[in-house]
Design a protein that fits this description.
Layout: H1 2-29, H2 39-67, H3 78-111, H4 127-155, E1 164-171, E2 174-179, E3 213-216, E4 218-222, E5 227-233, E6 238-242, E7 247-251, E8 257-261, H5 267-274, E9 281-285, E10 297-303, H6 305-313, H7 318-322, H8 326-339, H9 346-355
Parallel strand pairs: 1-5, 4-10
Antiparallel strand pairs: 1-2, 2-3, 5-8, 6-7, 6-9, 9-10
Helix pairs in contact: 2-3, 3-4
Bound molecules: copper (II) ion.
């Protein structure tokens, strides 16, 4: 098959070469040169540009009509409205400029195609023109940049102190969420502590870790409350992307990145708005991280504070999760473990170490 393709290409090249030779000879017979450019050639070229221009704008229209709705879903976070506004303002400036420059481009190619005896006007300098095309873009671009930096700074300010902290932990190819618990402090973690039981490598000796809650499959957040996400990765760079909340942040092994936002629309409300009773917010990975990257996602449920409180209260704390099974605990100090099951005391730590 490969040889057949090579053979066809070679034959094609030879055929074109012969065709050019034929054109050259026939031009010589007519007493001309095949390289002469006639006025008809120029006119046809110019007309082709008009046809191309029409197709070009049609392609633009077709793309907007068919794919415009896929750009971004309705914003469901407070800062999302600001970024959308920034996006819209940029588009309102870019779109007319795009049309004006391209219409003129195609039209002037057509209007001024070369005719015999026609001479182009030559002028070397115009201060007025230079000023116009320097000052106007400067003002427009500076305004856009200042507006953009202002919006960016508003979004990336440190989260308020009382903001709920959730860790989003990425690994090939899933997400784990960890809630900081009542103290709003995530327990320390290290990749060195990762094992079959402790998948996030949380330090069991750290007091702050005991009330952390680890959640898989889906995570919930309360509507109207600021949530501060801290991102970590176990293996390669992932990117936490929550398109409805206009939130995206890289998850980089060995370092912590963060971002906070306030969700404004609950999952139930969004289901009504979209007319899709199966609608769900999603956390996606937006960095090609390996073979199953396409399926690296986690459901996000936005609900009322009461619903959220109920959901989170049913989840086990880290201390409860790593607490040893009853028979083993009984041999150590069952009273101490039972009395304070939310705290990781030294006895529990010792037992965990033995279990491992
Ligand atoms: Cu990925």
């Amino acid at each position: 098959m490969n040889w057949l393709i090579i053979f066809t290409v070679v034959l094609g090249v030879l055929a074109v070469a012969r065709l050019l030779k034929v054109m050259e000879l026939s031009a010589a017979l007519r007493g001309g040169d095949v390289n002469d450019i006639t006025e008809d050639n120029n006119k046809n070229n110019a007309l082709t540009w008009i046809v191309f221009g029409v197709l070009f704008f049609y392609a633009f229209y077709w793309q907007v009509k068919n794919y415009g709705a896929l750009l971004l879903p309705e914003s469901a976070s407070e800062h999302g409205l600001k970024t959308d506004m920034l996006f819209d303002v940029s588009m309102w400036i870019i779109t007319p400029t795009f049309f004006a420059t391209h219409i003129f481009l195609f039209y002037y190619i057509f209007k001024y195609y070369h005719r015999k005896g026609q001479k182009a006007t030559f002028f070397a300098h115009s201060t007025k023109l230079e000023l116009i095309w320097t000052v106007i873009p400067t003002i427009v671009l500076t305004s856009l940049i200042v507006y953009g930096i202002g919006t960016w700074n508003e979004i990336t300010t440190p989260a308020p102190q009382e903001t709920m902290v959730i860790e989003l932990y990425a690994k090939q190819y899933d997400w784990t969420a960890r809630y900081a618990g009542k103290d709003n402090q995530l327990g320390k973690a290290s990749f060195r502590l990762i094992d079959g039981v402790n998948a996030l490598g949380i330090d069991v000796k750290d007091e702050a870790a005991s009330d952390d809650k680890i959640v898989r499959g889906e995570f919930h957040i309360p509507v109207g409350k600021s949530v501060n996400f801290k991102f970590h990765s176990r293996d390669v760079i992932h990117s936490a992307y929550m398109p409805h909340f206009r939130a995206q942040m890289n998850c980089v092994p060995g370092m912590e990145t963060m971002l906070h936002f306030v969700p404004t629309i609950t999952t139930a409300e969004m289901r009504v708005k979209t007319g899709n009773d199966k609608f769900d917010y999603l956390l996606l990975c937006n960095k090609i991280c390996g073979a199953s990257h396409f399926n690296m996602q986690m459901k996000i449920v936005v609900e009322s504070q009461e619903e959220f409180d109920k959901w989170i209260s049913e989840k086990k704390t880290f201390a409860q999760e790593i607490a040893p099974p009853a028979p083993v605990a009984a041999t150590v100090d069952s009273a101490a473990v039972a009395a304070d099951s939310t705290k990781v005391d030294s006895a529990t730590v010792k037992v965990v170490a033995q279990v491992h």
